[in-house]
Automatic annotation (TrEMBL):
Protein name per Swiss-Prot or TrEMBL: Serine/threonine protein phosphatase
Organism domain of life: Bacteria
Recorded GO MF terms: hydrolase activity
Record's keyword terms, sorted: Hydrolase
InterPro entries, alphabetized: Calcineurin-like_PHP (IPR004843), DNA_Repair-Maintenance_Comp (IPR050535), Metallo-depent_PP-like (IPR029052), Mre11_N (IPR041796), Pesterase_YhaO (IPR014576)
Entries under CDD domains matching the protein: MPP_Mre11_N (cd00840)
Pfam families: Metallophos
Domain Calcineurin-like phosphoesterase: 3-201
């Protein structure tokens, strides 16, 4: 019989809401409970597949969490595995090291939490007598600037060896360095499978050994978009791993760009948005799809979409709701008005002002420098994690400033345009 297990990481149980865009109470509640639902589904998968073990490679918790309700929920789910004879192996990640409840939790006897010493644990003996050993190492500090690999013991001779490590590898955008190491370092260590955690996007590196970063099982906001899941692993008697990615998340975040180029009618705009939403909903096999819609392209509707952004959001949210299990997280108005041959929006003062702002003011070096200075000052008031998300490097900061300047000027001009067009103008 082979050794079969589910490999997951970065559940971030009961992580607080990270999006101010979730104003819908029902949607906010859905996202708030999504991490718990993901763990329940992981346990359901373990039971349905009758695996030997569940491996959790760090970040069960989310930072400075203090609620024992989270810990009790986790213990209850792992108890279901214990009753089925399925073992659980856990290492602590950087967020677990910050949590106050991590060390107070009493888990079932079948659950093993690795300490700071990489002492291998016998997980199973195969029919041919070959043992399976799991090596893991937790870290007590939320910051680990150096590799933990030197502290791992050598592979057990004649056994199948599985290593568990929470690491940023050689670095990843949006993730702080944590216990960094290279793929070559992992390969040289001699294990058959590396069960990694920390990076929230799935990555599979090589086959001998097999190095897997499963990604998080449940996204928490639009920056963690896409279908999330876990890895079901079967290691045969020869030590060869076979991977099967299984979707887990109950809610999937996605971005949708709707090109309105040439669309001049309000109803046509809604029809195109509804068509694109329907296509996306059919492509994503999730219980709940949460969409950030970006309306783009060149259209004479641009100023009205900005002026009546609340109405746009309500109309498109209704279209999404009609599809079933589809929600709108946010609407971004990214479209522009078309110009005539003279480079102006039209023969009106607001059109001339728009051309002046877009052609002369926004590109000016002095304006961009002043905007950048203001942005840098504002960023200093944000937590480090948010700063890295908004402006990970100089290029991203400049893009942030450019986008904010365009959006701000477009909003002001849309209201001026609305006034000049007359208060009596209705929706087509």
């Amino acid at each position: 019989m082979p050794f079969r297990f589910v490999h997951t990481a970065d559940l971030h149980l009961d992580s607080p809401l990270r999006s101010l865009a979730l104003r819908n109470a029902e949607l906010a509640n859905l996202v708030r409970n999504a991490t718990r639902n993901a763990l329940t589904r992981i346990v359901d998968l373990c039971l349905a597949e009758a695996v030997d073990a569940l491996l959790i490679a760090g970040d069960l918790y989310d930072g400075t969490q203090t609620s024992m309700n989270t810990a009790l929920f986790l213990a209850g789910e792992l108890r279901r595995l214990d009753e089925a004879g399925i073992r659980t192996f856990v290492i602590r990640g950087n967020h677990d090291a910050q949590s106050q409840v991590t060390r107070e939790l009493t888990l079932p006897a079948s659950a093993h939490i690795f300490s700071g010493r990489s002492k291998p644990v016998l997980a199973k003996t195969l029919e041919d007598g070959r043992p399976v050993h799991i090596h893991g190492m937790s870290f007590a500090d939320p910051h680990a600037a150096e590799s933990l690999l030197p502290y791992f013991q050598a592979p057990v001779a004649g056994a199948i060896n599985i290593g568990m490590l929470h690491t940023s590898l050689a670095g990843s955008a949006g993730h702080d360095p944590y216990a960094p190491c290279s793929l070559a370092d992992l390969e040289r260590h001699g294990f058959d499978y590396w069960a990694l955690g920390h990076i929230h996007q799935r990555q599979v590196h090589g086959r001998n050994p097999c190095i897997v970063m499963p990604g998080m099982p449940q996204g928490r906001d639009i920056n963690e978009a896409g279908v999330k899941g876990v890895t079901l692993v079967t290691i045969d008697e020869d030590g060869d791993p076979f991977l099967d990615e299984r979707p887990i998340g109950t809610a999937v975040f996605e971005r949708l760009r709707v090109d309105l180029t040439g669309v001049a009618d309000w109803r046509a705009m809604l029809a195109e948005a509804g068509r694109q939403l329907s296509l996306l909903r059919n492509e994503v096999p999730a219980d709940n799809l949460i969409v950030r819609v970006g309306l783009s392209g060149t259209t004479p509707l641009a100023w009205r979409l900005r002026r009546d952004a609340d109405l746009v959001e309500a109309e498109i949210a209704n279209l999404a709701a009609a599809l079933g299990g589809c929600w709108i997280e946010k609407i971004e108005i990214l479209c522009r008005e078309g110009r005539n041959d003279e480079g102006r929006v039209g023969a009106d003062p607001v059109g001339e002002l728009a051309a002046l702002v877009e052609g002369d003011v926004l590109p000016a070096f002095s304006f961009r420098s002043e905007m950048k200075s203001v942005a840098e000052e504002l960023l200093q008031h944000l937590p480090a994690e948010l700063r890295s998300l908004l402006a990970a490097d100089e290029q991203r900061l400049e893009e942030l400033v450019r986008d904010a300047a365009f959006a701000g000027s477009a909003d002001v001009l849309s209201h001026l345009h609305g006034r000049s067009a007359g208060a009596g103008e209705g929706i087509d």
